[in-house]
Protein 1
Amino acid sequence: MHQRPRRTNIKMGFEDVRLTKKQIRSKILLRLKTQKEEERENKSKIIKKKLFGRQVFQKAKRIMFYISFDGEVNTKDMIKEALKLGKIVAVPVCVKGRVIKACLLPKRAKLIKAPYGVCEPAIKRFIDLDNLDLVIVPGVAFDKKGSRLGRGKGCYDYFLRKVPKRIPSIGLAFDFQILPSIPASSDDVNVDKVVFA
């Protein structure tokens, strides 16, 4: 039997309305694209300070970041700082279409544009997921329980299902990306924490 898509309440500067995943995605992606660069940078600095202040981050030796694009929380300064602190950094690389693998990102690595417009290392050296201590996760929207709405391809949900449960995951977001609730399906995978500003 065909089920109607679940809807959620969302407050984005106007009265509460019930929106589908697709509608939430298009509204927030537009906010990300139209947010002033200065505001993006200021909030990203606050998020970086909060993340770096967490004990789970300080203890982690091997951290998987994502390379920000398209108005996301800026992770480029976070990656530089983490490398300076002596952390081993990995970033996502898509292989075989939508399968994400963790790829080492050494200092001064040459980056190339990948099919979805995201940057990735030109030279690929993969790291086993068991060897990670922390995974930093992008998202279009989150709620405070850790439910996550991605870009609709399912890459990160598939990836997070393969990450051992003992390895913590943290989503990064701007305040307007935090919603009261996210419509979830059985394929969706939550993050452990969300850091936002």
Note: The helical segments are 21-34, 37-53, 55-59, 76-84, 155-162.
Protein 2
Amino acid sequence: MLGKSLKITRLNGIDIMLDPSWFLIAALIIWSLATGYFPAELPKANPATLLSLATIAMLGLFVSIVLHELAHALVARHFGLKVRRISLFLFGGVAELDSEPLSGHTEFWIAIAGPVASLCIALVFWGATLVALLIGASDPLRSVLGYLAALNLVLALFNMLPAFPMDGGRILRAWLWVRSGDLLAATRQVMAVSTALSYALVAFGLFMAFSGAVALGLWAILIALFLLAVARSTLANLEEKKAFEGRVISQLMSRDPWTVSPELSLAELVNDIFLKRAVTFAPVVEKGILLGYVDTQIVRKIDRENWTTTKVNDVVESSSDQNTVTYDMPATDFMAKILKTGRRKFLVVDAQGLAGVVSLSDMIAILNVSSEVG
């Protein structure tokens, strides 16, 4: 998402959110329809009519995308998955689930629901177009209905491309997942296909741009870059989950870290601990009681000429929920805390006090080893 989403309504217990980027695509759609599509369909229409029709068609697209995503959400609920919200943004919409589907069969039915819904909507608009023709409705009405019928058909077919996170990519992953029984392996295979299609889309975009269709070319390139970013993020999240599954902090932390006394001067801290021991973070302990920590970033805020007269106790960062974790915290929860706080190193405590330290680099090392051994 590009910004803070705006809640516009709530359908069947699901919040419908609108990202600020949606207003950009809505404006572009209205402009392109009012200056291109509808003038070609209705050459005698005046500008005000064309603008009104373009706005109605854009709102029809908005409703169509919401219904597409709502179909995903309702099927996900049927399989016991919690749906946080439906968000519309620059590249379309997404039904945000709290967790991945539990099986390939579940993912298939959730993924296929969207294109099926779009096909049904296309049929409804196509039927409405025929009725409008039979009863002699106005040309503008038939033009809007026909556009929405064609648009939903394109939406259904485009979403079936096997590029993640599009519905076709999820359907392909579901099939591979059922065959292999391995979600991570299936995801890696789909990501390879998705990457190839994304690069092909970039090539197509460049060709169209140099052929004169600059807007279409740039749009294709933007979609390709979005698909690449989401695919890589999805794979990274799954690899992280696999690597840390069942692990707790006590299995990942560094035990018996170098500790320092609060009475130590910063000069002694830098020379005898940081430089001599090659560490940048040290818990501060007095008589077995954990007071907090001190690190190189804290020391750098103090002028060097004051290091000999400044004690650790003067600059110690007191231990708190923000910089402390328990030894039995799940590794996945710890990664979430890193993202939430922005911190890279944490104190680890147990019933006796300080148990060790754990850092983002420890987690990255586990990820690297997990990736190396497959």
Note: The CA atoms of residues 118 and 155 lie 7 Å apart.
Protein 3
Amino acid sequence: MSVLIDFAIFPTDKQTSVSPYVARVVRIIKESGLAFKLGPMGTSVEGEWTEIMDLVSRCFEELRKDSNRVYLTLKADYRKGASGRLEGKVKSVEEKI
């Protein structure tokens, strides 16, 4: 099973810049060993369903430690038997342009 997610998570009760908090989350994502791609408005991650949901929970718990309000958006795409979609989906479109 391959699940590809795109999610954004950050506290809303902090200063204008939330990059220090996003960096904490990205460290957790890096340490997970899952394939990911950081973007300007969110991060895409590929893995198994349980790995992905565990990762999102760990990211939430990290920010909850010192935040009274956390914003989270998540989009998910499951495709049975597929892998390498983090790069493959983009490449497929670029080849058609």
Note: The beta strands are 2-11, 35-38, 43-47, 70-79.
